[in-house]
Write a structure and sequence with these properties.
alpha/beta; TIM Barrel; about 35% helix
Amino acid sequence: MQTLRIGAHRGAMCHAPENTLAAFEKAIAFDTYRIEFDVRRSRDCEIVVMHDATVDRTTDGTGKVADLTLEGLRQLKVGGSEPIPTFRETLNCIRGRSLLLVELKDSDITDQVVDLIKAADMIDVCTLSSFDEDCLRRAKEICPELSRAAFFVKPGTLDVQDKINNLGIDMLIVWPQTATPEHSAQARQNGLQVRCGYPDNMSYEESYDLFKRLADAGVDEYSCGRPDWIGRMIEAYERKID
């Protein structure tokens, strides 16, 4: 029987401001197997945790992350209360308590992010992902032992072997519309884990209906802003099939 695992999207972002240490602590408290978060580079070349290109949506400030120094970013609050963490702080926060899925939001930060992971001695617990597949190719070149994940989010033909050969991935990240039994089977036959993210704006009942379809389709890992719900759904699903 497949092992179903709890993932968190930007931490437990429905319980604490997204991509903050508070959200990561919440995710850890819910026994999350792997925590996803996003990284960008500040004007003074610090790697910080932030999803958007600007701070406008998530903080009490304005401007592009790339135009702000770390000192300027430190003056802002996410969700009105939480500081923007650096990548180093996030590594130290999660170390030894969960696996990490690091999404590269800037295309030219791969080397720096890999260097920070190496310096923290956390290569074996981190996975890099990016919509820019050149980032994954670069990571494969400079650190082949570091886990990599590719996105497959638009319905269409999937060539898993091509992605493995070109990107060296060991995980496929899908969305509900691309999480089919055929795609999952192809991924699993090639030794890949399959992770699926899904919306946070559904009721628990709606989420569980989707979860059951994804589990039946062969998805291993589930990611949303409510990892506590995922834990409950895994327990309910496994009771049903026992």
